[in-house]
Amino acid sequence: MIEEFWQEFLIATGEDRTTRYADCFHFDSSEKAANGCLALVLAGQKKATASSIFAFECNGEPVPKVGDYSIVTDFSGAPHCVIKTTSVIMIPYGEMTYDIAKREGEDDTLEAWQITHERFFREQGQILGYEFSESMPVVFEDFEVAYKK
To answer: Cβ distance 105 to 44 under 8 Å?
Structure first.
């Protein structure tokens, strides 16, 4: 299913057939949140995502870079769109500003962003074996939708 979707993207966009995607994922850790974030992406409201640098390190995955393509799925793993990374910055969690955070399209205030992200990072840290802190580096990735069904 994923490879078929990727081939559809390559054909529809005229991208070189040797182009590979960097990641295939769903947002967040619950079905409701993952599918809600996907809906925001498809509606053009969510244009960024924030991740702990430690998640990439614990999983042995590279940090996203400008130009990377990723397939975004719903919680069940069905692909819905391809995003292209347009910017990547690293910022300590405690230095996040609302001007940056609002690009995620999910929260109305910095405080709301902090509440949801601290909870997510703490839960993820328990699973992966890292500790949340105010100084924890956050990988903030801006993206654009390059293809959707």
So the answer is: no
